[in-house]
From TrEMBL:
The protein, known as: V-SNARE coiled-coil homology domain-containing protein
Chain coiled-coil ranges: none
Organism the protein comes from: Chlamydomonas leiostraca
Keywords: Coiled coil, Membrane, Protein transport, Transmembrane, Transmembrane helix, Transport
CDD domains: Longin (cd14824)
The protein's role, per its UniProt record: Involved in the targeting and/or fusion of transport vesicles to their target membrane.
Amino acid sequence: MPLIYTSVSRGTVTLAEGAAFSGNFSSVAKDFLEKAGKNDGKFTYSVDGHTFNFLTRTGYTYLVVADEAYGRAIPSAFLDKMAAEFTAKYADKAPTAKEGSLTPSFGKQLKQMMEHATQFPEEYSKVASVQRKVDEVKGIMTENIDKMLARGEKLELLTDKTENLMFEADRFVRTGRTLRRQMWWQNCKM
């Protein structure tokens, strides 16, 4: 699973956390919390093939641990979504919450959000979203080109039929003229 662990902290106090796997992610995260919590913004640290992605905003630090191969775009978008969800639901409880007190309620939601981000990464990645739109446009363009080629083939067929019709009309006129002349000579001989 590309997203492994996530947490929300106020300073060095972890208010809620969720993990897809067991590990020492929370203890490693605590080491980075002091560094990450000083300034608002996003920070990423790489440790043992994992990235610890932090977002610090208005005194709260949001963390998601991901496989290093998963990149940074999806974890970054995940952090933004996690911060919005947390702020919307716990803005009033968070300032006075104790260590781990929001894990029973928000921890489950964090796990669900991680699973969703893993199953549908295109919803979190702007690049994947743009790529999907480009693929849709490519499909439409291919259909349009196929239709134009089919019309072109029909036009070629129509052109061929028109040329044949012109040739047959010209032959009909020549044959008619020849027949008329023959009939005229026959009438003259009688």
